[in-house]
Amino acid sequence: MKTSQMKIGVIGFGYWGKIITRNLRELGYTDITICEKADINWHEVGTKYKHTKDHTKLQCDKVFVVVPVASHYEVCKHFLERGIDVFCEKPLDTNLESCQKLYSIADKNNCRLFVDWIFIYNPAVNKIKCLIKSMGKPKSIIANRMNFGPVRSDVDARWDLASHDVSIACHILDETPLESQWLNFSRNKASKQNDSTVGILRFSETSVQINASWSYGIKNRMYVLEFEDSFLHWDDNTSTMLYGSDIIPCDKMSPLHASIEAFINGNFVQKQLTLDITRALQSNDQV
Protein backbone atom coordinates (compact mmCIF):
# COMPACT_ATOMS: atom_id res chain seq x y z
CA MET A 1 0.00 0.00 0.00
CA LYS A 2 1.34 3.44 -0.91
CA THR A 3 2.25 5.80 1.91
CA SER A 4 -0.36 8.35 0.85
CA GLN A 5 -3.13 5.72 0.84
CA MET A 6 -2.41 4.10 4.21
CA LYS A 7 -4.87 4.99 6.97
CA ILE A 8 -2.99 5.58 10.23
CA GLY A 9 -4.49 5.85 13.71
CA VAL A 10 -2.67 7.51 16.61
CA ILE A 11 -4.24 6.85 20.00
CA GLY A 12 -3.03 9.35 22.57
CA PHE A 13 -1.97 12.89 21.73
CA GLY A 14 0.25 13.73 24.69
CA TYR A 15 4.00 14.39 24.71
CA TRP A 16 5.06 11.28 22.75
CA GLY A 17 1.88 11.05 20.69
CA LYS A 18 2.62 14.49 19.21
CA ILE A 19 6.19 13.41 18.40
CA ILE A 20 4.97 10.21 16.72
CA THR A 21 2.44 12.16 14.67
CA ARG A 22 5.01 14.73 13.54
CA ASN A 23 7.42 12.00 12.48
CA LEU A 24 4.70 10.16 10.56
CA ARG A 25 4.06 13.31 8.55
CA GLU A 26 7.79 13.77 7.96
CA LEU A 27 7.81 10.26 6.45
CA GLY A 28 4.93 11.11 4.12
CA TYR A 29 1.97 9.58 5.98
CA THR A 30 -0.87 12.08 5.73
CA ASP A 31 -4.10 10.12 6.30
CA ILE A 32 -3.88 10.27 10.10
CA THR A 33 -6.73 10.07 12.60
CA ILE A 34 -5.95 11.10 16.17
CA CYS A 35 -7.84 9.56 19.07
CA GLU A 36 -7.63 11.51 22.32
CA LYS A 37 -10.11 11.46 25.21
CA ALA A 38 -8.93 14.75 26.68
CA ASP A 39 -10.21 18.01 25.26
CA ILE A 40 -7.90 19.41 22.59
CA ASN A 41 -7.95 22.80 20.90
CA TRP A 42 -8.10 21.45 17.36
CA HIS A 43 -7.83 24.96 15.94
CA GLU A 44 -4.32 25.10 17.41
CA VAL A 45 -3.47 21.62 16.14
CA GLY A 46 -4.76 22.46 12.69
CA THR A 47 -7.29 20.92 10.32
CA LYS A 48 -4.87 18.41 8.74
CA TYR A 49 -5.97 15.63 11.14
CA LYS A 50 -9.22 13.78 11.57
CA HIS A 51 -9.99 13.09 15.21
CA THR A 52 -12.19 11.07 17.57
CA LYS A 53 -12.43 10.40 21.31
CA ASP A 54 -13.39 6.73 21.00
CA HIS A 55 -10.71 4.28 19.83
CA THR A 56 -13.34 1.62 19.13
CA LYS A 57 -14.72 3.85 16.34
CA LEU A 58 -11.33 4.21 14.68
CA GLN A 59 -10.94 2.75 11.16
CA CYS A 60 -7.31 2.31 10.14
CA ASP A 61 -4.76 0.05 8.47
CA LYS A 62 -2.09 0.50 11.18
CA VAL A 63 -2.39 1.93 14.67
CA PHE A 64 0.04 3.65 17.05
CA VAL A 65 -0.84 3.24 20.73
CA VAL A 66 0.59 6.07 22.84
CA VAL A 67 -1.54 6.06 25.99
CA PRO A 68 -0.70 5.45 29.68
CA VAL A 69 0.73 1.97 30.26
CA ALA A 70 -2.29 0.80 32.26
CA SER A 71 -4.38 1.15 29.08
CA HIS A 72 -1.94 -0.61 26.73
CA TYR A 73 -3.40 -4.09 27.15
CA GLU A 74 -7.02 -3.09 26.54
CA VAL A 75 -6.30 -0.85 23.54
CA CYS A 76 -3.76 -3.17 21.87
CA LYS A 77 -6.07 -6.16 22.37
CA HIS A 78 -8.96 -4.33 20.67
CA PHE A 79 -6.99 -3.81 17.46
CA LEU A 80 -5.08 -7.09 17.44
CA GLU A 81 -8.36 -8.99 17.70
CA ARG A 82 -9.41 -7.19 14.51
CA GLY A 83 -6.23 -8.15 12.66
CA ILE A 84 -4.72 -4.66 12.73
CA ASP A 85 -0.96 -4.23 13.19
CA VAL A 86 -0.13 -2.36 16.41
CA PHE A 87 2.81 -0.10 17.26
CA CYS A 88 2.88 0.33 21.06
CA GLU A 89 4.90 2.77 23.11
CA LYS A 90 7.24 1.02 25.54
CA PRO A 91 6.78 -0.70 27.90
CA LEU A 92 4.11 -2.94 26.41
CA ASP A 93 2.91 -3.89 29.89
CA THR A 94 4.39 -4.25 33.36
CA ASN A 95 3.14 -7.83 33.58
CA LEU A 96 4.89 -10.56 31.60
CA GLU A 97 1.77 -12.71 31.28
CA SER A 98 -0.16 -9.81 29.73
CA CYS A 99 2.60 -9.31 27.15
CA GLN A 100 2.51 -13.01 26.27
CA LYS A 101 -1.27 -12.87 25.86
CA LEU A 102 -1.04 -9.93 23.47
CA TYR A 103 1.50 -11.74 21.29
CA SER A 104 -0.75 -14.79 21.26
CA ILE A 105 -3.69 -12.65 20.12
CA ALA A 106 -1.54 -11.17 17.35
CA ASP A 107 -0.46 -14.63 16.18
CA LYS A 108 -4.06 -15.91 16.24
CA ASN A 109 -5.29 -13.01 14.11
CA ASN A 110 -2.35 -12.98 11.68
CA CYS A 111 -1.22 -9.48 12.57
CA ARG A 112 1.89 -7.99 14.13
CA LEU A 113 2.68 -6.33 17.45
CA PHE A 114 5.59 -3.89 17.56
CA VAL A 115 6.96 -2.31 20.75
CA ASP A 116 8.91 0.92 20.35
CA TRP A 117 12.32 -0.08 21.71
CA ILE A 118 13.67 2.92 19.87
CA PHE A 119 17.34 2.50 20.86
CA ILE A 120 17.76 -0.70 18.87
CA TYR A 121 17.44 1.61 15.85
CA ASN A 122 20.06 4.07 17.15
CA PRO A 123 23.16 4.08 14.87
CA ALA A 124 25.55 4.35 17.84
CA VAL A 125 23.94 1.36 19.58
CA ASN A 126 24.25 -0.72 16.42
CA LYS A 127 27.86 0.39 15.99
CA ILE A 128 28.54 -0.91 19.52
CA LYS A 129 26.80 -4.17 18.64
CA CYS A 130 29.09 -4.58 15.59
CA LEU A 131 32.18 -3.81 17.68
CA ILE A 132 31.21 -6.43 20.25
CA LYS A 133 30.84 -9.03 17.49
CA SER A 134 34.43 -8.36 16.42
CA MET A 135 36.02 -7.71 19.84
CA GLY A 136 34.11 -10.06 22.10
CA LYS A 137 31.83 -9.38 25.05
CA PRO A 138 32.72 -6.58 27.48
CA LYS A 139 33.39 -7.43 31.12
CA SER A 140 31.02 -4.72 32.33
CA ILE A 141 28.76 -1.90 31.19
CA ILE A 142 27.73 1.18 33.16
CA ALA A 143 24.74 3.02 31.69
CA ASN A 144 23.57 6.43 32.93
CA ARG A 145 20.19 7.87 31.93
CA MET A 146 19.78 10.90 34.14
CA ASN A 147 17.78 14.05 33.41
CA PHE A 148 15.26 16.51 34.84
CA GLY A 149 11.85 15.38 33.57
CA PRO A 150 9.62 14.67 31.86
CA VAL A 151 7.84 13.27 34.92
CA ARG A 152 5.46 10.34 34.53
CA SER A 153 2.68 9.28 36.85
CA ASP A 154 1.72 5.96 35.23
CA VAL A 155 5.04 4.11 35.67
CA ASP A 156 8.24 4.64 37.65
CA ALA A 157 11.76 5.37 36.42
CA ARG A 158 12.57 1.67 36.15
CA TRP A 159 9.85 1.06 33.55
CA ASP A 160 10.11 4.48 31.88
CA LEU A 161 13.85 5.18 31.68
CA ALA A 162 15.77 2.05 32.64
CA SER A 163 13.73 -0.02 30.18
CA HIS A 164 15.66 1.72 27.39
CA ASP A 165 18.95 0.54 28.85
CA VAL A 166 17.73 -3.01 29.39
CA SER A 167 16.73 -3.04 25.71
CA ILE A 168 20.17 -1.74 24.70
CA ALA A 169 21.99 -4.35 26.80
CA CYS A 170 19.88 -7.25 25.48
CA HIS A 171 20.32 -5.98 21.91
CA ILE A 172 24.08 -5.38 21.85
CA LEU A 173 24.91 -8.53 23.84
CA ASP A 174 22.33 -10.59 21.91
CA GLU A 175 21.42 -12.42 25.11
CA THR A 176 18.69 -12.94 27.66
CA PRO A 177 19.60 -11.60 31.12
CA LEU A 178 20.34 -14.38 33.58
CA GLU A 179 19.16 -12.31 36.54
CA SER A 180 18.35 -8.74 37.53
CA GLN A 181 17.94 -6.72 40.70
CA TRP A 182 16.53 -3.22 41.19
CA LEU A 183 16.65 -0.56 43.87
CA ASN A 184 13.84 1.92 43.23
CA PHE A 185 13.64 5.19 45.15
CA SER A 186 12.64 8.86 44.96
CA ARG A 187 15.13 11.71 44.93
CA ASN A 188 12.14 14.05 45.07
CA LYS A 189 10.01 13.04 48.06
CA ALA A 190 6.94 14.60 46.42
CA SER A 191 7.14 12.25 43.42
CA LYS A 192 4.03 10.18 42.77
CA GLN A 193 6.25 7.39 41.42
CA ASN A 194 9.80 6.33 42.25
CA ASP A 195 11.70 8.82 40.11
CA SER A 196 15.05 7.00 40.29
CA THR A 197 16.36 3.46 40.04
CA VAL A 198 19.59 1.48 40.08
CA GLY A 199 19.62 -1.88 38.36
CA ILE A 200 22.13 -4.71 38.10
CA LEU A 201 21.77 -7.22 35.27
CA ARG A 202 23.93 -10.29 34.85
CA PHE A 203 24.60 -11.83 31.45
CA SER A 204 26.86 -14.78 30.63
CA GLU A 205 30.05 -12.70 30.47
CA THR A 206 28.93 -9.17 31.26
CA SER A 207 27.54 -7.31 34.26
CA VAL A 208 25.42 -4.24 33.52
CA GLN A 209 24.80 -1.41 35.98
CA ILE A 210 21.97 0.99 35.11
CA ASN A 211 21.49 4.36 36.80
CA ALA A 212 18.31 6.17 35.82
CA SER A 213 16.41 9.18 37.16
CA TRP A 214 14.06 11.88 35.89
CA SER A 215 14.82 14.00 38.96
CA TYR A 216 18.45 14.90 38.26
CA GLY A 217 19.74 18.40 37.64
CA ILE A 218 21.78 17.69 34.52
CA LYS A 219 21.34 15.41 31.52
CA ASN A 220 23.79 12.49 31.67
CA ARG A 221 23.77 9.89 28.89
CA MET A 222 27.23 8.37 29.33
CA TYR A 223 27.87 4.67 28.68
CA VAL A 224 31.13 2.97 29.60
CA LEU A 225 31.94 -0.52 28.30
CA GLU A 226 34.93 -2.24 29.89
CA PHE A 227 36.86 -4.62 27.64
CA GLU A 228 39.98 -6.60 28.50
CA ASP A 229 42.41 -4.04 27.11
CA SER A 230 40.50 -0.76 26.95
CA PHE A 231 37.26 1.14 27.52
CA LEU A 232 34.59 2.25 25.07
CA HIS A 233 32.89 5.55 25.99
CA TRP A 234 29.64 6.59 24.33
CA ASP A 235 28.12 9.96 25.15
CA ASP A 236 24.61 10.05 23.70
CA ASN A 237 24.34 13.76 24.60
CA THR A 238 27.09 14.72 22.17
CA SER A 239 26.84 11.69 19.84
CA THR A 240 30.52 10.89 20.41
CA MET A 241 32.15 7.50 20.84
CA LEU A 242 35.72 6.76 21.91
CA TYR A 243 37.55 3.46 22.12
CA GLY A 244 40.61 4.31 24.18
CA SER A 245 41.70 7.54 22.48
CA ASP A 246 40.32 6.59 19.05
CA ILE A 247 37.19 8.33 17.78
CA ILE A 248 34.61 5.87 16.43
CA PRO A 249 32.43 7.40 13.67
CA CYS A 250 28.69 6.68 13.64
CA ASP A 251 26.05 7.18 10.99
CA LYS A 252 23.49 9.92 11.53
CA MET A 253 19.87 8.97 11.09
CA SER A 254 16.61 9.29 12.99
CA PRO A 255 16.02 6.23 15.21
CA LEU A 256 12.32 7.06 15.38
CA HIS A 257 12.04 7.26 11.59
CA ALA A 258 13.74 3.87 11.37
CA SER A 259 11.50 2.45 14.09
CA ILE A 260 8.31 3.64 12.38
CA GLU A 261 9.43 2.35 8.97
CA ALA A 262 10.37 -1.05 10.44
CA PHE A 263 6.85 -1.32 11.87
CA ILE A 264 5.08 -0.14 8.72
CA ASN A 265 7.13 -2.46 6.49
CA GLY A 266 6.92 -5.44 8.86
CA ASN A 267 10.70 -5.58 9.00
CA PHE A 268 11.13 -6.65 12.62
CA VAL A 269 11.46 -9.65 14.93
CA GLN A 270 11.24 -8.57 18.56
CA LYS A 271 8.85 -10.76 20.55
CA GLN A 272 11.66 -12.42 22.50
CA LEU A 273 13.33 -9.06 23.13
CA THR A 274 10.12 -7.61 24.60
CA LEU A 275 9.58 -10.64 26.83
CA ASP A 276 13.22 -10.60 27.99
CA ILE A 277 13.05 -6.88 28.85
CA THR A 278 9.73 -7.26 30.67
CA ARG A 279 10.98 -10.25 32.66
CA ALA A 280 14.14 -8.39 33.68
CA LEU A 281 12.22 -5.28 34.74
CA GLN A 282 9.52 -7.25 36.56
CA SER A 283 11.97 -9.31 38.64
CA ASN A 284 11.57 -7.26 41.84
CA ASP A 285 7.79 -7.41 41.61
CA GLN A 286 7.79 -11.20 41.85
CA VAL A 287 9.18 -11.38 45.41
Q: Quote the CATH topology of the largest domain.
A: Dihydrodipicolinate Reductase, domain 2
Helix content: 25-40%
What's the CATH class of the largest domain, please? Alpha Beta
Poorly predicted tracts of residues: none
Share in β-strands: 25-35%
Q: What class, by secondary structure content?
A: alpha/beta
Annotation field: number of helices: 8
Biggest sheet features = 9 strands, mixed
Distance between the termini: 48 Å
| Computed Rg | 19 Å
Inertia-based shape: globular
Domain count, please report it: 2
CATH superfamily of the largest domain: Dihydrodipicolinate Reductase, domain 2
What is the N-to-C order of secondary-structure elements (H for helix, E for strand)? EHEHEEHEHEHEHEEEEEEEEHH
* Overall pLDDT score: 93
Please state the second-level CATH architecture of the largest domain. Answer: 2-Layer Sandwich
DSSP summary, beta strand count: 15
Description of the structure:
This protein is of the alpha/beta class and 287 residues long. It folds into two domains: 3-116, 3-Layer(aba) Sandwich (Rossmann fold), CATH 3.40.50.720; 119-286, 2-Layer Sandwich (Dihydrodipicolinate Reductase, domain 2), CATH 3.30.360. The protein has eight helices and 15 strands. Strands 7, 8, 9, 10, 11, 12, 13, 14 and 15 form a nine-stranded mixed β-sheet that branches. Strands 3-2-1-4-5-6 form a six-stranded parallel β-sheet, with helices on both faces. The longest helix has 17 residues, at 157-173. The radius of gyration is 19 Å and the shape is globular.
